[in-house]
Write a structure and sequence with these properties.
The structure holds 2 protein chains of 2 kinds.
Chain A: H1 13-16, H2 23-43, H3 46-72, H4 80-97, H5 103-122, H6 130-150, E1 163-164, E2 168-170, E3 173-175, H7 178-201, H8 203-213, H9 215-220, H10 225-252, E4 254-255, H11 262-275, H12 280-307, H13 314-335, H14 340-353
Antiparallel strand pairs in A: 1-4, 2-3
Helix pairs in contact in A: 2-7, 3-7, 3-10, 3-11, 3-12, 4-5, 4-6, 4-10, 5-10, 8-10, 11-12, 12-13
Chain B: H1 2-25, E1 31-37, H2 44-63, E2 72-78, H3 83-94, H4 108-121, E3 125-126, E4 144-145, H5 151-166, E5 176-182, H6 185-188, H7 191-201, E6 204-210, H8 218-227, E7 231-235, H9 239-251, E8 258-260, H10 267-271, E9 281-284, H11 294-302, H12 319-342, H13 350-358, E10 361-362, H14 364-369, E11 379-380, E12 391-397, E13 402-404, E14 409-410, H15 413-431, H16 438-442
The chains are: A mainly alpha, B alpha/beta.
Chain lengths: ~350, ~450
């Protein structure tokens, strides 16, 4: 009833090509951003901030980066954890080795280093495809794990291999409380999501999608596979690298390579598969599902147990969490193989016709 | 329709959760002890007895009437030994039930992450027998308490024992010592000391990492087979320890030349290996298995006798159970000490508990009264020394139980102290924090 584009006439190509052509969508998204920037910091407590919102935002950013590579360009990668690690350690090294390095510059430089490494490990994609490429990108994961564990220089000769950062500040704004951290992450994520959305609508994004859908046909109509694949690797790794740097700097504060292990790569891959391949929105859905659900289950199960008079131990909760989580993944993949983002757009379609579906 | 019923179910679940949460907050004011534990995953065999001992001591304190009448409350959170999950647990528990008293992360990785957070939240962190070695320096690490010893102390004591066996430090020259370590901050901690000592005494140190979780060690033991080191130091945790011992059996490396750190010398590590582990040595962090200690008997009668014990009855008195028990005792005694200054019978904040831990003075008489005679040695901390004691012994597995096989050792502070100072200074410089002033020490 309310969600309908009737009467919204476009008189220019510009108006027709904007990200959200429907006015209601624009209002909803702006409202969502406003809620995220204003209402959430006012309402959420410190625990929600630190344990849920900040990890969600950072992992959503990483999933967004991976989605560009896997969802838009069709190149499966299992090296996401490695690119996050490169971003985090590079940013760390720029911060400790150059005095007075601004945080944002360090983050971006970390992203750039990750982009370089990403392109390097993306070169095999020119010759191999599909699952074979996934195996090849595993090399990045193992190599980076090895490098950050073994090469002392990267960790500034820290005896235990664990590095830490603190005293973050941007233009005199000290990022100290969880609220500051949340707002900072939210700012970064918003900017990158906007950039990514525009990028995938541009000619570069269309080249990626052409390569994904059929690389031979794409080459025939004049798209250079080398250029398209390597730019996808570069952009994806850049975003993933920035997310990695945020994960280390803002969320953990102190980290070791285990924070960016192969598990992280799989986790991110699951996020975009569940959230929806080839969808910016899907990255956020997937991240929310994977970050929030285990924590919710972990807290809800003992509470539900005590409601019916059962005392559930932490070991049982942790096992049950895995089982329910796994079952839900299977459930969602069966019900909607194209991910939560597809469910979302189906919902929107239905809403357009509501309340008169015929 | 389907969506509707789903959403109704979700709402009901959320409402139920909210109501439970409010009842939890309505409880009386008690001293809250968060418990970060791991009862699942690759480290569960070792994590479970520790957690049971820890929780049992809190229950026992309540059965004894609390700390000057203040009852303890506690809540467990499963970390799975993962840093990000540990941080989440910390955030979840730190503000609950009137605020957390003290955290025992039981993971060096989590310790590193919490070290950055504790000063802001004003909650002390006890890392008894693990954590950052340089956090001994309380002038820089105000909130960290590596009570009873660090990995540098452990490595030093193991080398002292080996040199004694060989007949003096000079006899170590040209010997080959291999360190098989868990490839994490935990396993890497002892390396600086071992390197320092190898320079001093001229022995050859081989560093052999084993990746998490440590079930795949063929490559590591191939190196042992090739190099034939005179001694192997084992810095493992969880399934890695028993795997190492099985590999040693397969390689034919003599178990009596193997020395584990105090986290690699408990029953779960050797039990599966059975006779194969006979002769294997490990450090005992003050206590070993203490089935006859007074506190153990008290746990058996007051808790297990009434069906309130946390784990299986047979576990009470085993090495890691005792470690959980005595580490809980250190936290509880920190609260008791703080009450002496800030008011007996009151609930202490994290900040007040920190003072108590920094001024801990547990003499033998107090320990005996707590039932820890023969389990713990006196420990006293100060501003400059957040560690309190560095006593340890070596114990050996005879196929059925752990027996002490050495005298008491104390780590050589002539070697360790300069290293602590240098590392703490480096940390302070990186973080741009000042050393605490003497006036701050009194506060």
């Amino acid at each position: 009833m309310f969600y309908r584009e009737n009467g919204q006439f476009k008189t220019s190509y510009r108006a027709d090509q904007q990200i959200f052509p429907i006015a209601q969508d624009r209002i909803a998204i702006l409202a969502l951003i406003a809620v995220a920037f204003v209402a959430v910091p006012l309402l959420a407590d410190e625990y929600l901030m630190r344990a849920i919102f900040i990890p969600f935002l950072i992992l959503a950013l990483a999933a967004l980066g991976l989605n560009i590579l896997v969802g838009y360009c069709g190149q499966i990668s299992l090296g996401t954890g490695a690119f996050m690690a490169v971003g985090a350690y590079a940013a760390y090294n720029f911060t400790v080795r150059i005095d007075g390095m601004p945080l944002i510059v360090a983050l971006l430089l970390g992203g750039l280093c990750a982009a370089v490494v990403g392109v390097l490990f993306g070169i095999p994609s020119l010759r191999i495809k599909g699952l074979y490429l996934a195996v090849a990108t595993l090399a990045a994961q193992f190599f980076c794990d090895w490098a950050f564990l073994r090469i002392k220089w990267f960790t500034n000769d820290s005896a235990s291999g664990s590095v830490n950062v603190s005293n973050l500040s941007v233009f005199g704004w000290t990022i100290d409380t969880p609220y500051d951290k949340y707002l900072f992450c939210l700012g970064v994520v918003t900017v990158f999501a906007l950039l990514a959305k525009n990028l995938v609508r541009s000619h570069v994004g269309r080249e990626w999608m052409a390569i994904r859908d059929m690389d031979v046909a794409a080459a025939v109509i004049g798209i250079r596979p080398v250029y398209a694949k390597l730019t996808a690797f570069a952009v994806s790794s850049f975003i993933v690298g920035v997310a990695g740097a945020l994960w280390g700097f803002v969320h953990l504060g102190a980290w070791e390579p285990a924070a960016f292990s192969i598990d992280r790569s799989f986790q991110l891959l699951f996020m975009i598969i569940i959230g929806g391949l080839g969808s910016i929105m899907g990255s956020f859905f997937g991240a929310a599902f994977i970050v929030v659900l285990p924590i919710f289950l972990n807290q809800a199960l003992p509470a539900l147990g005590s409601l019916v008079g059962l005392n559930i131990g932490t070991a049982f909760v942790s096992h049950a969490e895995f089982m329910i989580f796994g079952a839900l993944i299977v459930f969602f993949l069966i019900v909607e193989p194209h991910g939560l983002a597809r469910l979302w757009s189906i919902g929107k379609e239905k809403l357009r016709l509501w309340p008169f579906p015929h | 329709m389907k969506l509707k019923s789903l959403s109704i179910a979700a709402m009901l679940a959320a409402a139920g959760l909210a109501s439970v949460a409010t009842t939890a907050f309505a409880q009386a004011k008690e001293q809250f002890f968060p418990v970060l534990s791991y009862r699942t995953g690759a480290y569960a065999p070792n994590g479970v007895p520790w957690a049971n001992g820890y929780v049992d001591y809190l229950k026992l304190t309540n059965a004894r009437g609390g700390v000057n009448g203040v009852k303890l409350s506690f809540e467990e959170c499963e970390t799975g030994y993962a840093t990000d999950r540990g941080v989440e647990c910390y955030e979840r528990l730190k503000g609950k039930n009137g605020g957390a008293t003290v955290f025992h992360p039981l993971s060096t990785g989590i310790t590193f992450a919490l070290t950055e957070k504790a000063p802001g939240d004003k909650i002390p962190i006890i890392t008894a027998g693990y954590g950052r070695s340089e956090s001994t320096d309380g002038n820089v690490f105000k909130w960290n308490f590596p009570l009873t010893g660090t990995y540098w102390d452990a490595a030093d004591i193991l080398l002292q024992h080996i040199s004694k066996k060989e007949g003096g430090w000079d006899k170590l020259k040209g010997k080959k010592i291999a360190l098989i370590y868990h490839d994490s901050p935990y396993g890497k901690e002892p390396i600086p000391l071992l390197v320092e000592r190898s320079k001093m005494h001229g022995f050859d140190l081989a560093q052999i990492p084993v990746t998490h979780p440590g079930v795949e060690q063929k490559a590591a033991w191939l190196q042992i087979r090739q190099n034939r080191p005179d001694y192997v130091l084992l810095w493992g945790w969880g399934v890695m320890n028993s795997t190492s011992l099985k590999e040693a059996v397969a390689t034919g490396y003599p178990r009596d030349k193997m020395y584990g750190v105090w986290w690699a010398a408990a029953e779960p590590d050797v039990k599966d290996v059975g006779d194969g582990a006979k002769g294997y040595n490990g450090l005992a962090l003050q206590h070993g298995a203490e089935p006859n200690a007074a506190v153990v008997k008290e746990v058996l009668t007051k808790l297990h006798g009434k069906g309130q014990g946390t784990g299986p009855k047979e576990e009470v008195g085993s090495v890691l159970y005792m470690r959980g028990l005595s580490q809980a005792m250190l936290g509880v005694e920190g609260v008791r000490r703080a009450q002496e200054r800030y008011g007996k019978g009151k609930v202490m904040t994290g900040e007040q508990t920190r003072w108590g831990l920094e001024n801990l003075a547990l003499d033998q008489k107090k320990l005996d009264a707590l039932g820890f005679a023969g389990v713990m040695r006196p420990i006293s901390t100060s501003c400059a020394d957040h560690r309190g004691a560095t006593w340890a012994r070596v114990h050996t597995w005879d196929g059925a139980k752990w027996n002490f096989s050495s005298d008491w050792y104390e780590a050589d502070q002539a070697v360790i102290k300069p290293m602590i100072k240098a590392a703490a200074d480096k940390y302070a410089a990186e973080k741009k924090i000042e050393r605490r002033t003497p006036a701050d020490c009194q506060s």
